[in-house]
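Lab notebook, design round three. We kept the backbone fixed and only want residue identities now. Task for the bench partner: fill in a sequence for the structure below.
Input structure tokens:
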């Protein structure tokens, strides 16, 4: 059973982050805390009642390939129809494109609920948002009219076709070809690992495909973006002939079994008809427009599966009896080590949530604040935080979901309990949308490098100022100072010998996540303390203080070890001989 953590979500959005500041920036919609609560409550009902019951059966049944096309597990089609009917596809889409234009902080909360209930289901629908973003950012009015309304309404779904066998992290190696023909192109090539590349949820699928126009320059500068529909569209807008593309097979995976991961073949006959989006050779830039939202969303997937693992582990630990205290059998939650595991899961999950929502709010402010300089600061901060959210939340989620298995003992390893599904499903999150290594390269190379650490320094100073003179916040002040020093080391290494910085970039990313999310947990503790003085004994705030204390005493000290690795661990990698590893 999944209990949507509504009180916790409200606390982070309103009490901790003060998302009502966004109300000023939304001339086109009526954003308010109350509206946000209503939407989150409705999303919670949908997640709990419609999506969650399909999570386990979907995992067991999996998506199926047939020569006629891919079928999703039983119940997915009905759930998708209900999802569309309720208007959820429109939530994050800007109002000028026919959506509801809700801010990232709210859509992240909704995503948390949906991903928690059924990650494999929601992956497909969340891709359509990305497709709308890419088309809207770069397409002609005619292309927008042809594709956007039906993607926004949910009548069609979208995909992202980037990866090829030889081109994974390195998209410069893409070989798929685009040959000009009149007002369109013919696409030839094979893509692998395409999420929801084929399925039976909608009667057309809009593929966004990265390909190289014949004669284009080598490398990333020669990649263009194309819209390639599964079925062509007639002049009157109706569905036309099938395009020259098909799903050759689907992968057998560790997790997210219900999400079809497709090998896609384009142009086995005359070439699939594709329409260029934006100028030739600018495809990757458009994909990067969507990258921030997509990577934030993957961080939220880590948070969502962690929350599931936590709830399940807590339930198990309260009921499973082993060992005795004063001669009486006790539930395992009474054992200090089990309590430690549960607190560790809870503290890390709550820390992920504050970090995800904080980054989302900064992204919103970066686009919506009236003051241009506030907008610029917020956007730079959001962009700095996105690789941390993606990398740290997903790496931490693996730890949390694995601890969830541990709390169950042997039964955690047995599929029947469901604990292992969270671990299996979340395992992909450190890999797709750029592995943790790629996130950490982005963090030190692009995000720190482009302003010589200015955005990071400003964030650290702001968080340090909050710790003030309070003695209870001393560990946070120390951790922030440690992060400041480590950042200077990374910047120096990056300037002198980039390989040294890359050798410690993942420990640095983890340090950033541990400390920045930690400082936000300190803020949460301060809010809880103030609330308790007005309302003594309130269980929610008492629990919050208990969790924040655990974070300060058992999680935050990990920063010391990570900082030591960052400052002194590079040479052991750069001087190591690959043939001796
Ligand atoms: C279930 C699933 C769904 C997917 N969905 C999609 C999708 O919808 N669309 C799509 O286009 N793709 C999708 N992918 C592909 C996914 O984005 C890639 O698998 C991912 O980007 C990694 O590429 P790769 O598998 O080729 O690994 P590689 O690039 O070969 O990486 C292997 C290892 O080398 C490391 N590495 C590589 N280059 C560097 C570097 N420069 N610096 C440091 N470390 C490096 C990586 O971190 C990793 O640990 C999906 C993959 C899976 C498994």
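Proposed sequence:
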């Amino acid at each position: 059973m999944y209990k949507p953590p509504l009180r916790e979500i409200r606390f982070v959005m309103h009490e901790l982050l003060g998302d009502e500041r966004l109300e000023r920036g939304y001339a086109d919609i009526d954003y308010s805390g109350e509206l946000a609560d209503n939407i989150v409550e409705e999303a919670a009902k949908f997640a709990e009642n419609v999506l969650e019951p399909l999570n386990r059966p979907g995992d067991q049944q999996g998506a199926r390939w047939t020569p006629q096309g891919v079928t999703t597990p039983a119940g997915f089609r009905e759930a998708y129809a209900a999802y569309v009917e309720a208007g959820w596809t429109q939530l994050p889409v800007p109002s000028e494109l026919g959506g509801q234009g809700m801010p990232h902080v709210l859509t992240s909360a909704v995503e948390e609920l949906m991903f928690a209930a059924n990650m494999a289901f929601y992956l497909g629908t969340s891709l359509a948002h990305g497709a709308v973003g890419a088309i809207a950012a770069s397409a002609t009015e005619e292309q927008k009219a042809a594709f956007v309304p039906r993607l926004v309404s949910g009548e069609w779904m979208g995909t992202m076709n980037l990866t090829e066998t030889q081109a994974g992290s390195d998209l410069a190696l893409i070989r798929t070809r685009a040959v000009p023909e009149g007002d369109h192109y013919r696409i030839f090539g094979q893509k692998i690992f395409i999420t929801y590349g084929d399925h039976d949820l909608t009667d057309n699928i809009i593929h966004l495909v990265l390909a190289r126009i014949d004669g284009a320059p080598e490398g990333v500068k020669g990649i263009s973006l194309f819209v390639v529909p599964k079925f062509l569209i007639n002049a009157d807008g109706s569905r036309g002939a099938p395009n020259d593309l098909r799903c050759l097979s689907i992968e057998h995976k560790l997790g997210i079994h219900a999400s079809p991961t497709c090998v896609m073949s384009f142009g086995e006959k005359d070439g699939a008809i594709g329409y260029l989006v934006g100028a030739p050779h600018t495809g990757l830039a458009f994909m990067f427009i969507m990258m921030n939202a997509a990577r934030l969303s993957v961080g939220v997937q880590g948070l969502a599966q962690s929350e599931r693992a936590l709830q399940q582990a807590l339930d198990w630990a309260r009921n499973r009896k082993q060992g005795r205290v004063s001669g009486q059998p006790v539930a395992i939650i009474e054992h200090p080590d089990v309590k430690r595991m549960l607190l560790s899961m809870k503290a890390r999950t709550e820390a992920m949530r504050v970090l995800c929502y904080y980054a989302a709010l900064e992204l919103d402010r970066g686009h919506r604040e009236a003051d241009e300089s506030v907008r610029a600061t917020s956007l730079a901060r959001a962009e700095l935080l996105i690789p941390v959210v993606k990398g740290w939340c997903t790496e931490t989620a693996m730890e949390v979901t694995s601890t969830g298995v541990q709390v169950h003992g042997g039964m955690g390893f047995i599929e029947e309990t469901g604990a292992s599904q969270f671990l299996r499903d979340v395992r992909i999150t450190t890999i797709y949308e750029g592995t943790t290594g790629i996130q950490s390269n982005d963090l030190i190379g692009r995000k720190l490098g482009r302003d010589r650490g200015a955005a990071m320094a400003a964030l650290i100073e702001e968080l340090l100022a909050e710790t003030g003179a309070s003695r209870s916040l001393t560990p946070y002040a120390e951790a922030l100072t440690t992060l400041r020093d480590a950042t200077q080391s990374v910047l120096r290494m990056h300037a002198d010998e980039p390989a040294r910085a890359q050798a410690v970039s993942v420990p640095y990313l983890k340090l950033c996540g541990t400390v920045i999310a930690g400082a936000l947990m300190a803020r949460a503790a301060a809010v809880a303390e103030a609330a308790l003085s007005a309302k003594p004994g309130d269980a929610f705030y008492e629990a919050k203080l208990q969790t924040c204390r655990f974070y300060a005493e058992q999680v935050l000290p990990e920063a010391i070890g990570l900082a030591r690795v960052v400052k002194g661990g590079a040479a052991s990698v750069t001087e190591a001989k690959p043939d001796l590893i």
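Keep this in mind before ordering anything: The first strand starts at residue 64 and ends at 66.
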